[in-house]
Amino acid sequence: MSDTKNLQMLLQCPMPKLDFDVITLGHGSGGILTNKLLDSGVFNLLSNDILDERHDGAFIEMNGKMAFSTDSFLISPIFFPGGNIGELAVNGTVNDLAMCGAIPKYLSLSFIIEEGLKVSEFWEILVSIKYACEKAGVQVVTGDTKVVEKGKGDKIFINTTGIGTIHTKANIRSKNIKTGDKIILSGNIASHGMAVMSVREGLEFDSEIKSDTTNLNYTIISLLEKFGNHIHLLTDPTRGGVATVLKETAQSTNLGIDIFQRNIPIEEQVANACELLGLDPLYVANEGLFISFIDASIADEFLKMLKKDNNGIHAKIIGSVVEEHPKQVILESAIGGKRVVSMLPGEQLPRIC
Amino acid sequence: MSDTKNLQMLLQCPMPKLDFDVITLGHGSGGILTNKLLDSGVFNLLSNDILDERHDGAFIEMNGKMAFSTDSFLISPIFFPGGNIGELAVNGTVNDLAMCGAIPKYLSLSFIIEEGLKVSEFWEILVSIKYACEKAGVQVVTGDTKVVEKGKGDKIFINTTGIGTIHTKANIRSKNIKTGDKIILSGNIASHGMAVMSVREGLEFDSEIKSDTTNLNYTIISLLEKFGNHIHLLTDPTRGGVATVLKETAQSTNLGIDIFQRNIPIEEQVANACELLGLDPLYVANEGLFISFIDASIADEFLKMLKKDNNGIHAKIIGSVVEEHPKQVILESAIGGKRVVSMLPGEQLPRIC
After folding, report:
1. What is the pLDDT of residue A6?
2. With the CA atoms of B203, B204, B208 and B209 taken in that order, what torsion angle do they form, in degrees rounded to the nearest 10?
3. Is residue A350 part of a domain?
4. Nearest CB partner across the interface for B68, out of A31, A63, A142
5. Tell me: the pLDDT tens digits for B296-314?
6. Are residues B234 and B265 in the same domain?
7. CATH of the domain at B91
8. Given this model, what pLDDT does residue B35 score?
9. For a Cys-Cys bond, which of A78, A80, A116, B95 suits A85, CB 3.0-4.6 Å?
10. Closest by alpha carbon to A146, among B159, B192, B290?
């Protein structure tokens, strides 16, 4: 279940001794069992002054412009190469806030558990939530735990909702995008989706394909510090992949987008896995990746700085914003042919995040 | 499915014409179908300037002390006498914020839909979300829609997370409770739980038992305006009922609580239904009810003011905080006997909210 990273975390966080092995309906009742779960020490893992008040809501103090974002995570399987649903839920909302130009600060955490979930699995998820929060510099300040009957859920769903303060230099809006803007992709595409698919399909490769789930907030903040409002839009190509996000942006701005396949970074074995399964990597979900629409004047310097960051080593300029073909994304293939890129049609990979 | 109240709302909000009748996995893909759902006009119902930006998160501005609260709603059935899961989800989080002494302002809204949900049912839920938001004076500013395979969810689960500004006169903390404080219950108990149970068990009564789901924020705000920090704690007895909330408060304050059964208001047919099903109404969930722990000096005036409010017509002083028997809640029965009140043991009514 756990990969090396998680095993190390678990060694540092031994599970409290409990007199129950699985979560039951009673743990969601609001009564004795809920309080027993709350008092069991399980949630102490996430302890902080605000959360520890255990009121109906958290008392926080914030000032000025903020971003507020929500996401529910239903990934299957809940443990996958490179991570699990817990850190995914933290990173996902942290990144959504970062894409708004915000410094993420507080998270709410809501569990919908299917009865029968092993407490040891729940613990492992909580441990990875703890570490993901520490890494991203955010605190879980309020939460909720509900339990559904067997067959009315699937192990565990997690909602995280976050608040962050907008960086003073940030002005992230799709309407700021203009003709000539460069489009920068921060790294290799399709890793998250193919990591999950390889487990589901039982595929084995020379080396394991791992999800790229990670927090992007510090990377974004340092770029905002330096380039401020030259950064016009930030967006993370999760569900629907790079293609869908680009198409949405073309549509909302009424501008055209040209991208070049040879510039789109992808790991060889991820590309091979996509080919094997007949999937176009442009539509496969990513978790630790972002696309920046920036003023052409800063493109080289932006790329240079991003490539020095752990989250941007493989960054590339993949294309630019053009006046021609408004609302259309045109991909120039490796051999020079051109094709129109649409959004993901139908459902490619259900339950990918 | 719909009761009179909902029918009136639906008449005022005709559903946009769509070329699909049910929600499918593709509507949660993030691709074409998700965008089709977003563009269908369905979500225009909740339109406001912030939501309409459709970025990864909402841009909001707030200052000072705030409350932040989250809740996932999994009630079954999703339509019940007196309401549905949509307004329940709005009112639930609005009330959690109000219990913190906050003026609720912004909500996030996250749907986990089981494939096959009828769009007409989804529409009805959205309509009641719209009206509940208007009634409570809050805006949905950011959202998320995910879809799970049939059998991995149950029609629809909804997470709402809310932010509100703490009222300047509010100082709501259980540590403010002291010996002599009066405990005021705002109305009849057990209506929500028994409304849901009567549907599940197919019970019929002379007149239908209806859920008490409603927003309490305006009631709370006017009480805070008048009585400020004489109000020590506000709490809503949802899951686990009145008994569980009182026991939790006794435990966290290390004080005792005495309550008097003859003062606890309950509708006759709700009491009868509880007896029929062998349920103690003290443990049955409420949605539009709150318990106030207040300074004894204001008790009469507080009760008088609350009873003039639509949400407090049946309010009663049900007991007081005592030095004796710390951490214990003692109920004096109608015939004078005394018993210790514990939290809800196990799970009485799964999926009640």
Report:
1. 74
2. -30
3. no
4. A142
5. 999 999 999 999 999 999 9
6. yes
7. 3.30.1330.10
8. 83
9. A78
10. B159
Report CB contact under 8 Å: B30, A244: yes
pLDDT (0 to 100) of residue B2: 52
CB contact under 8 A, A344 and B30: yes
Domain shared by B96 and B183, yes or no: no
> Is this complex scored with an ipTM above 0.85?
yes
Residue in A34, A100, A142 nearest the CB of B70: A142
Tell me: do B145 and B199 sit in the same domain: no
Closest CA to A93 of B161, B103, B53, B71: B161
Beta carbons of B214 and B286 less than 8 angstroms apart = no
Assigned domain for A351 exists:
no
Instruction: Decide: helix, strand or coil at residue A67.
Output: strand
Same domain, B147 and B212: no
CA angle A180–A308–A257, rounded 5-degree value? 20
Counting residues of chain A whose pLDDT is more than 70, the rounded percentage is 99
A134 and A180 housed in the same domain? no
Chain A CA closest to residue B31: A344
- Token pair for A163: 């608040």
Q: pLDDT digit string (tens) for B138-171?
A: 999 999 999 999 999 999 999 999 999 999 999 9
Strand-pairing partners, residue B73, are B158
The two structure tokens encoding residue B49? 């300037």
Find out whether B102 and B165 touch, Cβ atoms under 8 Å: yes
